[in-house]
Each structure stands twice: as C-alpha cells, then as structure tokens.
Amino acid sequence: MIAKYIKNEQLANLLEWVLAILAAVVISLFVRQFIFTTAVVSGPSMLPTLHDGDRVIINRISLRLGRPGRGDIVAFPYPIDPNDKYIKRIIGVPGDYMDVFDNLLYINGELWVDDFSPEGAFAAGDMRFPFTIGEGEYFLMGDNRGNSKDSRFASVGLIREENIIGKAWFRFIPLNTIGIVE
Known about the structure:
Elements: H1 9-34, E1 36-40, E2 55-59, H2 61-65, E3 73-77, E4 85-92, E5 97-101, E6 104-107, E7 110-111, E8 131-132, E9 137-141, E10 159-160, E11 166-173, E12 179-180
Antiparallel strand pairs: 1-2, 2-11, 3-4, 3-11, 4-9, 5-6, 5-8, 6-7, 9-10, 11-12
C-alpha cells in the first residue's frame, strides 16, 4: 500500500514493517492499560488458591462493569511501594461492621466462615477493631491468614476502590495449573 507512494521498494517495505510494529505496540499498550494486565504472585499469602511465582491475568474491565465484591481476588499497588502489586481477597465491603472476638472475625455481627482459608483462627494484626468500612473502601486478606500482610495491618490498611487494579481472572503460569482463578 505504501509502495505506491514511495518509489524505493525497500524503503516502502521498511515503512510498512515500522507502521505494523507501531500499531501492535499501541494496541498492546491500550489493552494493558484499559482491559488486561498481568501480575506475579509473590510469597505464600494466597495459599492454597495461588502459589508463589504464579502468573495471573488481571481483568481491568470488570471494574468498569461493576463494583468488586466479597470473595473477589483483586490486585492493588502496595501502599508503601506502589510499584509492587499485591493480590488479596475481598472480605469486607463498604458499610460492613468488622469486629474480632476470641480470634474469630465477625462481619455485621455474624461469624465470618469461608472456604478460602484453611485456617479458622483470625489474628487481628495491628488494626484496631471494631470499625465500619467507609464508602469506596475494602478490607482484603490473603487466603493464608497466618502468613499474609493485608488489611489487618496499618501498612496496608483498607484499600480504596480507585486503587484496585482489577480482578485476578486467569492463571497462565505454571502451565500445569492454568485456568480461571476462584
């Protein structure tokens, strides 16, 4: 197509390649910025659901289609080092009243029991309970409750909705565990 405007065939071919590569880069950046991105799980905090070194696709568009909900696994920048992505599960949503009694978590006065964590006990970290989650904030925890730096600790705290990058959607590495993240 360019060849009809440029008489030098080699230059025309080179320009076509450059334009094709440029288009691919622009499309890739658009997809990464607005639709999907990737993250690497670092450490054991999401065991048994996700393992250290797992690579997951983060679905950004899901947040444009609706609010994140309890049980969703999401990625967000670590508040102390925003270049580091954390991956945790949403446990508390805006308006929830969170309390801890006898090392058990209560949400809105009801004992929180889930299938995500192999542990029953709940260590409170250094957050002060009870509290009510504010509008646009979320309480997140790792599935490996005994080894997770999450919203129970002031260094992470409650995560603002606008800081959630997206939902962990698909694990693509390692290949033997490829599939949808739940």
